[in-house]
Automatic annotation (TrEMBL):
NCBIfam families: g_glut_trans
This protein's encoding gene: ggt
Protein name, entry field: Glutathione hydrolase proenzyme
Species of provenance: Crenobacter cavernae
The organism's taxonomic lineage, starting at the top: Bacteria, Pseudomonadati, Pseudomonadota, Betaproteobacteria, Neisseriales
Signal is among the record's keywords: yes
Subunit and partners: This enzyme consists of two polypeptide chains, which are synthesized in precursor form from a single polypeptide.
Length: 590
């Protein structure tokens, strides 16, 4: 860790500062004073001022990426279940209706606010590397990363955590029986669901990866091509697996019939997961990372996610700039967003990994003092080139899939879950006879220091492959609390962009007073240090982009980033919204 310097309160606004810098050639950047934190503007929701409006409900709400799953969650709440009961039901339902991301064969994270105890808990059911995994398993004879090996082969699969995670959450905080929360998912798998245009497109994009395996083709293909919109996706084997889990609990997955089939699948195709890997899989309850942002408390996922740490780290830097005065998506605001994102992602590559294996300096990274120090590197106008921060090799982005859902019940419990197979449909491999798609989460490790993964993220020693270790994640289920109670429940898929998407949702709500719908609907930006590119969604004004380009940013307008599912708790009830970037998402309540 670089040395920590003490905080120097200073009230010059950044604009005044840039002027001072321009006029005074003797005031070097290193001496540039750091502004003190700026308070949040007072938010007054005004119906007349908002273009997009959230869904309202009084007693409970679910925001998820597929309407059928949302409805199942709401049904659990209506039956008297709490947010965790609903979350587990939604988790199993998404494994059926959103097969590209919802899963039994992957892993994820849950952030929970327990209204009874007032505590926030982070549940980690991330995949782990099998015992036979080794540091260089994705390198070829020449020591180069073998293309696709960590993504589309049986070697890509980490030991799945979702089933254990769901069962753990239900036993620990839920009130309903496992069989009851799984029942709706079984029915959907058995009877089939109509393929939406969105899902059809996902399957089409991944047709080569899905088509490679008989076990996968027999479920998602018809007449030699992926199912089309309007056709029915029936998953009999998955229904059977779900029924087994409903009857016997997670034991059947980790030490019984389903586990045996996964192990057989691995053995047949050179995969590494063995009986003991499944038997020894463990869910971890962790203390969340937390920070203060303009008077709000932000609690989010700790390592092995990098998400919470960097959201807080970036917010700590942003806190000193009056973003609400600079304006939403103005060049000045985007500049501060991009510069602080870059500094955080550079630290990600260096320090972040599984805390069971490496010492992650969470306290240091999320401290206000460290943010002060970093903020001194941020010039109000000049762009810090990525190479000046740390060198690396950029790589293009790829398509990807994860999913997030948020739930709040009438008792004040709040749950945010992000879980994933990693890329779309994970490895594309269904373990024969189970109907269960297996993840390709092993790609989240750094296969070789300095070589980017599917998200262009690079990593080093801290995220090297080791048996039993969890690959570093960006998933960031997050709660923002006001006076100790959930105020915003949010999160997103999007690989490396999860962190910045979730960050901007918080900034939009806190700094720009946006409701959940507005916060989701506004264009996003992203910078991850390497590649040295400011990625933007469409919708920013040409003159803003021009200012940014003139400042020195490599601006790239690319496909949309993230798909948030957000619920905001206000005095008169719950206001939620499903990101319009996914037309299949739905927020509902009662
Ligand atoms: O854990 C992670 O950070 C990644 N495996 C998440 C992948 C992802 O978000 C793909 N999404 N759209």
């Amino acid at each position: 860790m670089p040395p920590i310097v003490s905080r120097r309160p200073f009230s010059l606004s950044a604009l005044t500062l840039s002027l001072a810098l321009a006029l005074s050639p003797t005031l070097s950047l290193a001496e540039a004073p750091v502004a003190a934190p700026v308070a949040a503007p007072v938010v007054k929701y005004d119906y007349d001022q908002d273009i997009f409006h959230p869904v309202y409900a009084k007693n409970g709400m679910v925001a998820a990426e597929q309407e059928l799953a949302t409805r199942i969650g709401v049904e659990m709440l209506k039956r008297g279940g709490n947010a965790v009961d609903a979350a587990v039901a939604v988790g199993f339902a998404l494994a059926v209706v959103l097969p590209n991301a919802g899963n039994l064969g992957g892993g994820g994270f849950m952030m929970l606010h327990d209204a009874k105890t007032g505590q926030d808990v982070a549940l980690d059911f991330r995949e782990t590397a099998p015992a036979r995994a080794s540091r260089d398993m994705y390198l070829d004879d020449k020591g180069n990363v073998a293309e696709g090996r960590s993504l589309y082969t049986h070697l890509a699969v980490g030991v799945p955590g979702t089933v254990a995670g769901m069962e753990h959450a239900l036993k620990r905080w839920g009130t309903m029986k496992l069989a009851d929360v799984i029942a709706p998912a079984i029915k959907l798998a058995e009877q089939g669901v109509v393929v939406s245009p969105t899902l059809a497109q996902m399957m089409d994009v991944e047709k080569d990866n899905l088509g490679r395996w008989d076990s996968t083709r027999s479920i998602f293909f018809k007449d030699g091509r992926p199912l089309k919109a309007g056709e029915r996706l029936v998953q009999k084997d998955l229904a059977r697996s779900l029924r087994l889990i409903a009857r016997h609990g997670s034991k059947v997955f980790y030490q019984g019939e389903i586990g045996d089939k996964i192990v057989a699948e691995m053995a047949q195709h050179g995969g590494l997961i063995g009986k003991d890997d499944l038997k020894h899989y463990k869910v971890a309850e962790r203390a969340p990372v937390s920070g203060e942002y303009r008077g709000y408390k932000v609690v989010s996922m700790p390592p092995p996610s990098s998400g919470g740490v960097h959201i807080i780290q970036i917010l700590n830097m942003l806190e000193r700039y009056p973003l609400s005065q600079y304006g939403l998506n103005s060049a000045q605001t985007i500049h501060y967003l991009a510069e602080s994102m870059k500094l955080a992602y550079a630290d990600r590559a260096e320090y972040l990994g599984d805390p069971g294996f490496v010492k992650v300096p969470v306290k240091g990274l999320t401290s206000k003092r460290y943010a002060d120090e970093l903020a001194q590197k941020i010039d109000p106008v000049k762009v810090l080139p990525a190479a000046a921060i740390k060198p690396g090799k950029p790589q293009p982005y790829e398509s990807d899939q994860t999913t997030h859902y948020s739930i709040v019940d009438g008792k004040g419990n709040a749950v945010a879950v992000t879980y994933t197979l990693n890329l779309n449909f994970g490895s594309g491999i269904v373990a024969r006879g189970t109907g269960i798609l297996l993840n390709d989460e092993m790609d989240d490790f750094s296969a070789k220091p300095g070589v980017p993964n599917a998200y262009g993220l690079i990593g080093g020693e801290a995220n090297a492959i080791q048996p039993g270790k969890r690959p570093l994640s960006s998933m960031s289920p997050t709660l923002v609390l006001k006076n100790g109670k959930p105020w915003l429940v949010t999160g997103s898929p999007g690989g490396a962009r999860i962190i910045t998407t979730t960050l901007q949702t918080i900034v939009n709500a806190v700094d720009f007073g946006m409701n959940a719908a507005e916060a989701a609907s506004t264009p996003r930006v992203h910078h991850q240090w390497l590649p040295d590119e400011l990625r933007v969604e469409k919708g920013l004004s040409p003159d803003t982009l021009q200012i940014l380009k003139r400042q020195g940013y490599q601006v790239a307008e690319k496909p949309t980033m993230g798909r948030t599912q957000t619920i905001q708790v206000r005095d008169d009830g719950l206001y939620g919204y499903s990101d319009p970037r996914n037309p299949d998402g739905a927020t509902a309540g009662f």
